[in-house]
Each structure stands twice: as structure tokens, then as C-alpha cells.
Amino acid sequence: AVFPLFLFEILLIAWVFKYFFGLFFQVPKSEVIKATKLAIEAGFRHIDSAYVYQVEEEVGLAIRSKIEDGTVKREDIFYTSKLWSTFHKPDLVRPSLEQSLKKLQLDYVDLFLIHFPLPLQSGMSLIPKDEQGKAISEAVDLCDTWEAMEKCKDAGLTKSIGVSNFNCQHLEMILNKPGLKYKPVCNQVSTLRLLSFCSSCAAAGLPLASLSCAWCLCGLEDSADRASVCMGLQDA
């Protein structure tokens, strides 16, 4: 029998970071429940996903199954979700998270990140495009989005909030925001190549981490470009 590549990637993650399990676009929906259950049974406790991956309902079913059979308790699982770019408008942030929670059948997530610092036109399409096929951006102040993220934390819908794929200019906008209530607990980036521009931000106390070297060693650079891990989380 042919061993599925995505299961090989899961085992590879286990070898590098024992407790981290990431879900990406390339995992077939039909296998998400099975793979997530397998990961939890193998000892994974940090599950990283996102609204845009469109698998949170399946992930939630797997988590609920493992809670019901006594393998884990909810507090044993550290679940990360991400705000997609079409929901950057402040009035869309909480509804987006609530939609994820409904799919997951969870009362809260442990970490909620702004997936990308590039707002896209709000609407039904995940990647809205114009007649030329170019993504349609939208003018939304990241500081306003961050303030809505803070309100999600205050409402108990997420324990911590952070960002993803931000450069130092984006981070400085948040850190210098008047009336900032919570600093981002982390900046999740997708490859080690991105870490260099964040050195000054690390000095500001923002934990940074990336999972890519393991895939590169195995010639799976394409997967590495999409793989990421958040470590050293601490509330600021």
C-alpha cells in the first residue's frame, strides 16, 4: 500500500515538534477527521488551523470525539485559528470567530491570529478578484482590526491574540497604537527566511517561530512554505 504523503508529513512534524499538529489546504477533507484523531492519539496537543483552510468543522468533530472518549479534556488542547483577510472590518471580526467556534463546537480558541496584514474586499469569496483576475484589496486600518481582536479576547472567545505574516512595519503599527490594550503574543511566520526582518520585533518581546527546516531536509520545500508553528506563547 502507498503511504499517504500528508501522513508522512504529520509523522515528520511529530519528530520535530512532538505536540504540534498543523492543517493545511492539501489535506483532503475526507481525511481531516481521521488525521486529527490520529494526531491527538499520538500526543499532539497544539492544533493549528484557520478559517480559510475550510476544515474547521471536521477538526471540531475530531476534537469532540477525542474529548468524549476520554482521550483528552478541552483544556489539554491548544487550538489556534486565524482571521481571514475578508473579515478585517472591525464589525466582521467577532462574527468570523464565532462562525469558526460554531463549526468547531468549541466555546473558545486558545489563540486567534490575524492571518495576513492585507485586507481583502469583504464578501462571500475567500479571494475576491477583479475582471483581470487580480485580488481586490480593501482599505481597513489594521489598528481598527486589532481593537476588534482585543474585544474578542475580552469577551472570552479567545484566550490570546496575535498576528501572522506581519513585517516590522505592520507590527509597529499595532505596538504604537494609542490605547493599545494587548500586545500580540506572537507573530507566526511561514519560513525561516522571514525571521531576519523580525529581529527588531523580537527585541520588543514578541515570540517568533517557524517550522521549515525539517521539510527542507526532506526536499519538501513547497510544504515548508505553508508550514508554521507558534511556540513560546505568553500573554503580554
TrEMBL record:
The chain crosses the membrane at residues 6-27. PROSITE patterns: ALDOKETO_REDUCTASE_1 (PS00798), ALDOKETO_REDUCTASE_2 (PS00062). It comes from the Eukaryota. Residues 26-191 form the NADP-dependent oxidoreductase domain. Pfam families: Aldo_ket_red (PF00248). InterPro entries: AKR, Aldo/ket_reductase_CS, NAD(P)_OxRdtase_dom_sf, NADP_OxRdtase_dom. GO terms for molecular function: oxidoreductase activity. Keywords: Membrane, NADP, Oxidoreductase, Transmembrane, Transmembrane helix. Belongs to the aldo/keto reductase family. This is NADP-dependent oxidoreductase domain-containing protein.
